[in-house]
Amino acid sequence: MISLPSNKHLNSISKYELAKLWLPRYTGTQIDEFGDYILITNFSYYISMFAERFKCDVKGEGRPMQTATNSGGLTIINFGMGSPNAATLMDLLSARKPEGVLFLGKCGGLKHSTEIGHFILPIAAIRGEGTSNDYFPPEVPALPSFKLHKFVSNKIVGHNQEYRTGVVYTTNRRVWEWDESFKSYLRKISAIAIDMETATIFIVGHANAISRGALLLVSDLPMTPEGIKTEESDQYVTQKYTELHLQIGIEAMTEIGEKGEQMKHFRY
């Protein structure tokens, strides 16, 4: 347990010290209980599926973030929705210094080549959410760690699944499907998908020297009225695709430490 300095010296506390204080507070999980490799998501049922599969406890109920860690040392964290939450988690994980973090998220497909149920491994993300501007100037690209993504792609192919690569647009807007001018902008920038967290995870991971990636599941096609997500369509995606989504993430982050290339973080 870290002791906070007295108030007159409070301005001298480091980011690392804050992260060590707040990671357990946000998650109900002690730092040494987190694994070297971590899955992150914004869906509570991914945590439930993980815990049920590995017969492990879910910690952090009633807190902002919940976790579960299996006997092999793989941890999954539900951080909630949106880029501020994603940034908070990636900052707090600097206290653990994980070897790799993989985001299992959902996204809206923006291209005719993307269909519901497809997987996307983004080669980059456009920083339309604003949160990442607190970490680097806007011209700094939001990129995943290549070696992590290469290993994940092998796992997808091993399951005989198709996947797409491309640039994802990350936004803080949740209700935009009515806005034709915004949709026109999305067509101009040639993004393959849209979500609310990927760019933030890439940038804040870069700021904290954490190897990171994202495996996104196309859950809706929001550029057309008939493709907008509904309660019924969301349940269909959950029932049909999320188990495989989680399975690929588990396999990738379990085996990468044993079989994958060593990942090092380089400043660009």
Give an overview of the whole structure:
With 268 residues, the chain is an alpha/beta fold. It has one domain (14-259): Nucleoside phosphorylase domain (Rossmann fold), CATH 3.40.50.1580. It is built from seven helices and eight strands. The protein has helices spanning 15-27, 44-54, 83-92, 146-158, 180-188, 198-207, 231-259, and strands spanning 37-41, 66-69, 74-78, 100-109, 119-128, 163-171, 193-195, 212-220. A five-stranded mixed barrel has the order 4-7-6-5-8. Helix 3 (83-92) packs parallel to helix 6 and helix 4 packs across helix 7 (231-259). The chain is globular. The mean pLDDT is 92.
- Given helix and strand content, the structural type is alpha/beta
- In the CATH hierarchy, the third-tier topology is known as Rossmann fold
- Architecture, CATH level 2? 3-Layer(aba) Sandwich
What profile does the largest beta sheet have?
5 strands, mixed, barrel
In the CATH scheme, the class would be Alpha Beta
Q: What is the CA-CA span between the terminal residues? A: 35 Å
User: Can you write the helix and strand succession as a string?
Assistant: HEHEEHEEHEHEHEH
Overall number of structural domains: 1
Oligomer description:
single chain
Strand content: 15-25%
Mean pLDDT: 92
Question: Widest sheet: strand order?
Answer: 4-7-6-5-8
Gyration radius from CA atoms, angstroms = 18 Å
